[in-house]
Amino acid sequence: MSLTDEQVAVVESEAPLLKVNAVAGSGKTTTLVEFAAHHPDCRILYLAYNKSVTVEMREKARLRKLDNLTVYTIHALAYRHARGHSYELESELSEWRLLDQYVPTSFKGAELGLVYAWLLKDIVNFYLNAELTQLDAELLSAYASATLPGEELKALLASRGEEMLGLVKNILSDMKNRKAPALHDFYLKMFQFAKVRLPYDIILVDEAQDTSGVMLSIINRQEHARRIFVGDSYQQIYAFRHAVNSLERVEGDSLWLSQTFRFGDALAQQISQRVNQGYELLGAAPEFKMKGMDMDTRYGKRAVKGKYPLAVIARSNLSLFEAALGYLFGKGIRTMHFEGGYPSYAFMNGRVASLLYLKEGKRDKINDPLVKKFKAFEDVKRFASDTQNHGLSTMIDLVSRYGTKLFDFDQKIKSRLVEKNQADLIFTTTHKAKGQEYDYVEMVQDDFATRSDIRKLLNSEKEDVSLVKIREEINVYYVAATRGKKSIMLAEF
Fold first, then answer.
1. Alpha-carbon dihedral of residues 89, 50, 120, 140, nearest 10 degrees?
2. Closest CA to 376 of 393, 395, 355
3. Distance CA 419, CA 339 (A)
4. Residues near 399 by Cβ (< 8 Å), separated by ≥ 6?
5. CB distance 292 to 260 below 8 Å
6. Using the 8-state DSSP alphabet, how is residue 401 labeled?
7. Could you give the CA distance from residue 104 to residue 102 in angstroms, rounded to a whole number?
8. Degrees to nearest 5, angle at CA 385 with 381 and 391
9. Are the beta carbons of 350 and 368 closer than 8 angstroms?
10. What is the pLDDT of residues 302-341, one digit of tens each?
């Protein structure tokens, strides 16, 4: 196959440490396969972002007979080296278990006890994903800087920080000693402590803009190997999961893959202009560059209407739900699919139903252990606000806005669900659309940050304005705007 000059430069690079900024749709997977083919005598490790990419990359390596290429996710690699199989594993810490087993007795009878439990949980997650290894004041300081906690959490950290560090140590010790289930990020942390020297000559890191600090620490320790970090700084949208942009954190040669093969050049220039305008508001130089194909991808007033399958992309779960309702009760019966699976959006589940029963005062019907801890709907609303729990806040908003109608809406949506290749409408948030592409796309209007929104935030007198979060909002817009191939209805920016 024919490679662009930019792709050739990556494939033939001999830099000991290389950073590649690859725009959306620039063929980075193809480029990395060619890189492996170009270095047949080198043992190469490809660190994929998720399991589906691992499967795809292994198949491409098999077809190209690339016996020198080994493909893992970082968690799969850690699972092998840190004996992940020896732990009882769970995907998430439960606040109520932390409340029952670790929160001091003096807090347990009060609502503040749940806030305490949630904060413990968040500090554990932050630590397991961080490059830091010590449980000390530096960790708490880094946590506060990264999460910008509200006043109640700040007060707890100030008054009980040392006590919490001791409890975090107990939680992790119980995981290590098999007295409690371990998180998947726990054996990744154990892998960091093990200081394993990986038996590879070259390490390729995919989606390098969204690595964790602990992952970066593990990779940086492999000084015997050449390291290639490939990603897109403008697609960094997982800072809320404590992800870091490796492309900004490591020193090395830099190359670009600026040619997208997904859509036309007119759209590429429009998106580039908007991204640069957003970053200029933050005081950054207009450095983003993207070239498109010689094809007509329609956007704006020329966007195609009435063509299916249509992908509907929202920034938030709540707006996606409202968009789905719009099509549910619109003209014509359309089949639906939700990227990542309908249940993952939590429009209706046991917790949502329990919140509804709490709001209606039907405590005997509440089954969710967390919701059971609250006496009134206003209490759980305050808890969600204090802890900045966006998932719980979305559920509360759904209940507040739609009440018992949610049961009926849920059944109507389920009656329309089909497999993705049979769907007229594909609903997705930006985060779940990452890595996907669609012929026809509609961005949900009034759901994405605009330049006007950014200016208002920057000019406000709020102390908790985060430039990192604002930058991520610009990146969320960019990711959504780069999903369409033939046509896209762009949101205002």
1. 130
2. 355
3. 10
4. 352, 355, 356, 359, 377, 406
5. yes
6. H
7. 6
8. 80
9. yes
10. 999 999 999 999 999 999 999 999 999 887 778 999 999 9
- Residue tagged 């690699």 (tokens): 77
- Its pTM stands at 0.94
3-state helix, strand, coil in the chain (%, to 5): 55, 15, 30
Q: What is the amino acid identity at position 178?
A: R
Tens of pLDDT, residues 169-223 = 999 999 999 999 999 999 999 999 999 999 999 999 999 999 999 999 999 999 9
Q: What is the 3-state secondary structure (H, E, C) of 170-233?
A: HHHHHHHCCCCCEEHHHHHHHHHHHCCCCCCCEEEECCHHHEEHHHHHHHHCCCCCEEEEEECH
For the record, the structure tokens of 372 come out as: 């059971």
H/E element holding 337? strand 336-338
Give yes or no for a contact between 175 and 87, defined as CB atoms under 8 angstroms apart.
yes
Q: What three-state secondary structure class fits 159? A: helix
Which two three-digit tokens encode residue 300? 């704006």
Output Rg (C-alpha) for the chain, integer angstroms.
24
Q: Which residue has the tokens 């691992």?
A: 54
Peptide bond into 104 cis (omega under 30): no
